[in-house]
UniProtKB/TrEMBL annotation, chains A, B:
Top-rank taxon, per record: Bacteria
Annotated source species: Salinimicrobium catena
An annotated GO BP: proton transmembrane transport
Protein name: Kef-type K+ transport system, membrane component KefB
Parts of the chain that traverse the membrane: 6-23, 30-49, 55-72, 84-108, 114-133, 145-167, 179-202, 223-253, 273-292, 299-322, 362-383
Gene Ontology molecular function: antiporter activity
Localisation: Membrane
Keyword Nucleus (UniProt): no
Cation/H+ exchanger transmembrane domain ranges (all copies): 16-385
UniProt membrane topology term: Multi-pass membrane protein
Amino acid sequence: MEEFNILSLLIILAGAWLGGTSAKRLGYPPILGELVIGIILGPALLGLLETSEMISVLAEVGIILLMVYIGIEINFRDLGKASWPGLLAAIGGFIVPFGMGYYTIIFFGGTDLAALFVAIAVGVTSLATKSRILVDLKLLNTRIAYVLMAGALISDTLALVIFAGMLSFVDVGSIDTLGLVWVAGKAILFFAFTALSGYFLLPLLGRLLSENNIKNRTFHFTLILIIVFGFCELAELAGLHSILGAFMAGLFIRDGVFNRQISKEINDIFHDISIGFLAPIFFVSAGFHVTLEVFQTNLLMLITVVLVAMVGKIVGTALFYLPSGYGWREGVTVGTGMNGRGAVEIIIAGIGLEMGIISTEIFSILVFMAIFTTLSVPVFLTWTTNWLRKRGELIHQESRKGILILGANPLGLYLAGHIKDQEEITFVDSNRELVEEARQRGFESVHGNILKEETMETARAFEKGSFIALTGNNEINLLAAQLAHDAFFIPKNIVLFAPQDEGAGVEVLDRIKASSMFASKTELGPWIFKIKSGDYSEDTEEVKQVTTTRNWVKKHKSGKGKILPVLIIDPEGHKRPFHYHDEIQPEEKVLFLH
Amino acid sequence: MEEFNILSLLIILAGAWLGGTSAKRLGYPPILGELVIGIILGPALLGLLETSEMISVLAEVGIILLMVYIGIEINFRDLGKASWPGLLAAIGGFIVPFGMGYYTIIFFGGTDLAALFVAIAVGVTSLATKSRILVDLKLLNTRIAYVLMAGALISDTLALVIFAGMLSFVDVGSIDTLGLVWVAGKAILFFAFTALSGYFLLPLLGRLLSENNIKNRTFHFTLILIIVFGFCELAELAGLHSILGAFMAGLFIRDGVFNRQISKEINDIFHDISIGFLAPIFFVSAGFHVTLEVFQTNLLMLITVVLVAMVGKIVGTALFYLPSGYGWREGVTVGTGMNGRGAVEIIIAGIGLEMGIISTEIFSILVFMAIFTTLSVPVFLTWTTNWLRKRGELIHQESRKGILILGANPLGLYLAGHIKDQEEITFVDSNRELVEEARQRGFESVHGNILKEETMETARAFEKGSFIALTGNNEINLLAAQLAHDAFFIPKNIVLFAPQDEGAGVEVLDRIKASSMFASKTELGPWIFKIKSGDYSEDTEEVKQVTTTRNWVKKHKSGKGKILPVLIIDPEGHKRPFHYHDEIQPEEKVLFLH
């Protein structure tokens, strides 16, 4: 264990954390900071650190666990719904730079294999900062966000499949047809076997565990690790790289295979070990292999590759996006959003370097390409979205659609009546009569206990974009929102809070990132009575300048208990529930009852 | 990365899991199975696997993370309360075998340093299966369990401090006094610095994070890892071993330093990465270094060391335990319970082997000593506890004392009235009048919202052994029990469930290992009314043969709603609440209202 050097591990971790956090502060993905820190600390600049056996081992485990996590994050249901435009963007954004990248390297005198590696690296897409940048640019509920997300999902899978196909033939050289069939056969066998056992054996195992009432998280975690490394070994036996096994394992771990609470906790563990511990070691040490000399010796190639990557990605995306009918401008915008390269690219480049297929120079160029393209995303995307916004071509669309409302009481029905034209609404209530009434009014309506997962599933909570809990019981509202957030990943949760001493406080909402309905503690009973008896009138008030919902409520404090702000209506007539974590923009109107 | 061998990692993990799970099934700690699997798979027997750089690196990270976890598990508050008898047992159980172990090795011609390593290894205590064996032998609420827990806590700390002291002088050889002072000074400086920064800087950091509203778990996790490796590096700078740094870091990570929810999740992550992933790699690979030849070449020494370990531990514990006044028989019982050796011993032996201080033979003997002593624990402890039980000398005592009751309503007060003589009772209620009434009856009583951590803290939930939630609101009862379990580690949670359609089902209790009060869904209102108006009578029924509370309720089904089983009274007159997860023993009586 002579090689085990705590100090270098400490420096790498602290450096990665510093670099990652700074990058995040600036709106970039942490990987960018980690690569840069690696270049600074490594032989390229300061020469403080260099690769060692210890770093390689930990980095290797890190990318395996990271690939599991990437696999877990790709949800098959999402892939199925990935939409036609997303598919077009992903394919176009891959093929065009792939082809251009390949011929660039051939032009510069590289080998076929090196050209293929670069081609894949150039073709890969990484959403630069996932939802972060979309939030910053206020794009989260636009069609572009939806296409970007779908495109990035498909892109990773596409890149890895092509990478697998290529790897199969790396050692082939000049063998006969039979040999070729064998090589291809092994790879296909790997995917078929892992997919089939993922589909059939894993759920069987999950059922076995739950039938035997085994709910030990650590037991599950170890078991899953064994499956992961088993798949990795299969991938290597099939002549592929272990990361493909890890990715396949990750793909099948989610989605109701294991007890949902345990699955969630295990996802968190994979997230934290990989992203919070071992994967940064890989990315920092990737920087160790970078040489700055390429800026002198290979500047032309560097510039060409970066340009090819950017132009190829944007033009390719826009071109293939045309059949969607959403116009070339939106295509260009999507292209600029997909222009980043990230973890998968660096991992593939690292494998190429390790296998001796690409040189240190090309590897360095690919790392700089990742850095430059990622840097370009927020800049370009800001330009293009502002351009679309000015032209009025920024189309709103939620990636998860529909609202799940708990409580088919008169207030819920009133709210639903207002927004039913723009969003699909599903009610859940434990009272049969209320459920029946909601059905008669044309709403999808589920009878059951919201705190049981079956009920949530029947109400297709997995597809919903928002959850609104409107019962008179604070704790049920809170528990339900917690379940919606933790187990069904509903991004937006709004909870009605009645003023009461006992019980959970509003501060509990923070943990699950939920917001409180009506932006203030509200007694349900009186309003239900008023709505039922028709003893209310509706009114709207336009807002002159940006204000938080909280301030709106404060301004109308004198009417407390007498007026109830229900909805915010934007200038286009789009309505959204009035809740705590929201801002009212100028020209938007608040619809309130009194 | 040529050394990175997925297959051997897979075999180790799968083997560790198999061995660990089998050992657990048989009532032994997983480490036993892991060591045995290592011996079987390694060079000693099958020769399937051997150590590699990859395995060493992962094992090293594994023990560092494991030491963090061991440190986290040792709670200062618990240490402070560790009681006089526990301290006596820990010291006696350490010093006597330590001395005997030292002279044994000297007798067999070993070096001074080797003798010291063996002495520590022989002196260490590991609770063979922590609470598992105590549960199996129904010892959980006896004084023995309390002493065992306290003793094991102190023992680890004691062993590591002495180990640190020893390490400081390993390289010393024959230097002058000034050198000696320097060596000792460095070690003391290390402990002083880490302890002081643990006490003062870490809480400051925690406050800084919470003031800036940083609640990102991964961010905290990475930061803690950096602190851990920082402490490890300091330990090495001080001439100590990195595990001491990891241990010191672990000691200070808990206890309200960081946001409690995040702390809990991070503890879980340390638990799962170490115990579920990396630490087993260390223990399996420890088996790789074992040679079976010792059974031929060093049989006498092997037998002597094992005997010295067992006899020294039991006699030493019993001897030093005498001043407690609890009798030598209880001392012997405690000694048999503390006779196991576990993770810390193997880690110290491994360090000795790695540093070249002990030979492969001595290392092997120490591994077998760990295996044999651990195997002996359940056997010996069953004997000794049965012996005590037959003599009527098994004294009951909870390690966490007192009951926290949510709901100072008449039913709660009635229950409390019965058990106030044997346990300290604290009420929490949000109703001021009820709180006042409970106070007038002489109970400690806290006014506040139970779902706020401050309220729990005011009620000293950290010290309580049980939590009983008796409000009429299922959800509040459940949320409160969840908080009591997750954030305040109250081991026993009993929740009143009213029959109701809506809301959380009893099955939710399982997740937090809570039990339901009265062992059936019970309407609170009618009973409160009956108790208030004095319209009830008490009765007891003796049970003839072992039965579960559930079956008792079923047998009295005809009286459903008419009778309410409140307490179980054992032959000694000790009363405990009647709840779902309990068995009624012969000669015990059920006290019920009707």
